What we know:
The structure is a single chain. The protein is mainly α. Helices cover 55% and strands 7% of the residues. It has helices at residues 29-53, 60-80, 90-103, 111-122, 125-134, 138-152, 160-168, 174-180, 191-200, 215-230, 250-263, 265-272, 296-299; strands spanning 6-7, 205-209, 234-239, 276-280, 293-294. Helix 4 (111-122) packs across helix 10 (215-230), helix 6 packs across helix 8 and helix 6 runs antiparallel to helix 10 (215-230). The chain is globular, with a radius of gyration of 20 Å. 32% of the residues are buried. GO terms for molecular function: ATP binding; pantothenate kinase activity.
Amino acid sequence: MMKDKKIVCPLLLDKETYLPDTIDLLNDKEAISYWLPCLEEMARNFVNKVSYLCPHDKTATERAKYTWQKFHDFIEQIKYNPQQFKPLSIRTLLEFNEENLRKSNFDDPWLLQKQKETVAAFTQYQDRVNFVDSIEDFYLKWEELSKGLVAGNLFDWGAKAIADILEECNGFGLTHAMQKIQQRPWFHDDLDKWISKLKRTPYVKAVVFIDNAGVDFVLGVLPLTRELLKQGTSVVLTANSGPALNDVTYSDLEVYLKSAEQKCDVLRDAIANNRLMAIENGQKGPCLDLRTLHNGNCTNPV
Length: 302
């Protein structure tokens, strides 16, 4: 892993006032009442799943119980006196959980799950891009790609509602996920304006921050990346520096792109000509903090 200095994203409109958290748990009683038990249950569910995630680790369940107890104790401290933990947000709690796992020698406990889901998703990749290619209308094509990106983001094992669906339905895929997303117009919906801009002035360069492995990356991110490349845009795919839930790490990304090269001429040619590159983003948790980016995200030319 690279050790370069982390920097603030230069594209932020106001670097001084930017905060990565949409919810301040210290000042939102309803939110903290919801999120504390929700995140505690997420940590508890890891105990139930760890024997599947780490089948060859005989001490995994015992260590997972220990990490859950530490997380539970931390939550109890927050309930007693939340003001002693500043800042307090979903991001900081998830980062504490990841640090807790590392201390118990869970380096990347979701690695096997990520590999399985990604291999399975690649079997559907060609059908997905064939369908996208069959859409002749520019606006409809990019709306489909955008919906695929939103639907792919549902495959997040850190979200309780989604984890329940994934546990109950082994065949849950992108098509099912696209039926789950809200119908447009969305709560914040500038998609039509963005597509018009994209048609009028294609990007010279795009940096895509990757989230979940499996369907999200293979059937959501890669088809969109492919279409950007076809427009002449150079693309940087950036992934977490360290493991967090089922998020793609930089080391994962390098492996996945080797598989992508074998599946797609557009991606293979772009990689060969340095128009598609992979870098790490400096993040150690599942939430993106644009104040702590790896400098390659902001300075790396393509």
